[in-house]
Amino acid sequence: MSALAPALQAFFTDRLITQRGSSPRTIAAYRDTFTLLLRFAHDQTGKQPFELNIDDLDAPLIGAFLTHLERDRGNTARTRNARLGAIHSFYRFAALEHPEHAHTIARVMAIPTKRHERSTVCYLDLTEITALLAVPDRGTWLGRRDRALLALMIQTGVRVSELVGLRIRDVHLGTGHHIQVLGKGRKKRATPLTGEITALLRQWITERGSGHEDPLFPTRQGRPLSRHTVGLLVGKHAETAAAGCPSLKTKRVTPHVLRHTAAMLWRAKGVDIATIALLLGHESVQTTHIYEHADPALKEEAIARTTPLGIKPGRYRPSDTLLAFLEQL
């Protein structure tokens, strides 16, 4: 067996699971990356995966693999960069365990991420928010659940993966009411609740009437909602709301759009970017700067503070009498 197989196994068991405590989603994403890579390397070299060495997965082969992802599998540049990130993570680990392959590892680590166009942040304005929250039928149990769910997402900006993991015990409605969220990287954060959302959740939890360990937003059978189900119900209610709010027809409303909406509401109230990053659970403030670029009010304020250029309206009139004569011809 070559050095690659035990190194890759140790990367998953020791580095990701034991040392870093990576989430199942992260482990699954890394697993899929290396499954695709090993199959591609097998096609290129003719070697079985267990026969491959670290030097077989050199920079030219990794580069060809990334091209294959985009050209043959139709992956976006964003997906390509995510796959490269997983490969870089493994090679950083391999550099410590197998310094004899330092040259190959250094060349792979030098492969850059690919630039790609960033789409404009999509979010809902106050009219659209009002229309969306008016859709769930408050006369039914499901309607009351969906209304509380949508309102919580819009006010707190929780990720859909965080939302479906919320238990009743994670909602604190006493002094300093907030929800306790387990975010990316298993990092916990407390997100404060407004008085309006606090009252709505208190009413919902009273009706919900289950134990502290039960999901905050369950199915009718009492099981936690899935991320897919939340996406479907957000889209369904947005489609219904679009009948009375035409601007919603131009937007694809997803749980992540509601997360953007929360950030833009905070930005409109003057909350600074560093605080928004904390509220959203961003690892880096750089990620949160997209909301500065998306806020038209900030740009209007900047233009208002700009020194006038001294440009006067009207048609140009030459001062010279001869030129004035020629203009009139």
Task: State the major sheet.
Answer: 3 strands, antiparallel
Structural class: mainly alpha
What's the CATH C level of the largest domain?
Mainly Alpha
The first-to-last residue Cα distance is 92 Å
Taken together, the total number of domains comes to 2
Low-confidence stretches: none
> What's the count of strands?
3
Mind telling me the CATH superfamily name of the largest domain? Intergrase catalytic core
Global shape: flat
Q: What's the alpha carbon Rg, rounded to whole Å?
A: 27 Å
Helical stretch count? Answer: 16
Q: What's the helix-strand series?
A: HHHHHHHHEEEHHHHHHHH
Q: Averaged pLDDT, please?
A: 87
Characterization of this structure:
The protein contains 16 helices and three strands. The chain is mostly helical. It folds into two domains: 4-109, Orthogonal Bundle (DNA polymerase, domain 1), CATH 1.10.150; 126-304, hpI Integrase, Chain A, CATH 1.10.443. The chain has a three-stranded antiparallel beta sheet.
Characteristics:
single chain; 329 residues; mainly alpha; DNA polymerase, domain 1; hpI Integrase, Chain A; three-stranded antiparallel β-sheet; 16 helices; 56% helix; 4% strand; flat
Protein topology:
Elements: H1 4-19, H2 24-45, H3 59-71, H4 77-97, H5 102-109, H6 126-133, H7 141-156, H8 160-164, E1 171-172, E2 178-182, E3 188-192, H9 195-208, H10 227-241, H11 255-268, H12 273-280, H13 285-288, H14 290-294, H15 296-304, H16 321-327
Antiparallel strand pairs: 1-2, 2-3
